Amino acid sequence: MSSHLDVRLREGTKHSHTMTENTAFMKCFLKGVVEKSYFRKLLADLYFVYSALEEQLEWYQHHPIIGMIYFPELHRQASLEKDLAFYYGENWRSQIVPSPAGQIYVNRIHEVANTQPELLIAHAYTRYMGDLSGGQALRKIARSAMNLPSDRGTAMHEFEQIPTPEARREFKEEFRSQNSGVRIKTLDDSLTLRYQWGIQTRH
User: What's the mean pLDDT when you consider all of the chain?
Assistant: First the structure.
């Protein structure tokens, strides 16, 4: 690799990331205008995405490359299940389906896992590092905007084993350190799906 993975990912997805931030949904969100109906649909899509990603990470946890970034404490599936139960009720599983864009994203994760599993690292990196960084600000906005109970509705962005800003900062450094030793010839061009999904589901 010519540079660290985080630099390559940041440069490779900069344009798509900017487009995501400029969607109507995100502009309103950042201003503190958050509708539960849209928010819960977003969480539903995330549930399918993280379920697919974490299924594959679990399968490849002993892989010589993927195993370097296998951190179960980052996994979001169980946390999203708590959120979905809060927003949809106990029968939430029968009420959610992935959006068309979300299904394309999920399909790509499985495709990558079956053909070039080392590229899962890039998908995991962009998702989890985002959750540990900007996701924390989104959590605070959501709690305030929707006047949520103190212990419900934002489990997606709460890391029980990494609870403080200091702990998250240290963990991100460890995660980057692990990735600095990863050698991937090419990044997955379909990483833009991560942002295209965000654009299509947030307009």
Answer: 82
Instruction: Yes or no: say if 99 and 201 are a contact pair by the CB < 8 Å rule.
Output: yes
Closest CA to 20 of 96, 106, 129, 130: 130
**Higher-confidence position of 12 and 104:** 104
Interatomic CA distance for residues 56 and 62, integer angstroms: 11
Contact 27, 33 (CB under 8 A): no
Predicted TM-score (pTM) of this structure = 0.85
As a whole number of angstroms, the distance between CA 199 and CA 15 comes to 12
- Long-range contact pairs involving 195-198 (C-beta distance under 8 Å, separation at least 24): 195/13, 195/16, 195/17, 195/19, 195/20, 196/16, 196/101, 197/45, 197/49, 197/99, 197/101, 197/102, 197/104, 197/105, 198/20, 198/23, 198/26
- DSSP letter at 152? S
Q: Retrieve residue 176's tokens.
A: 């980057």
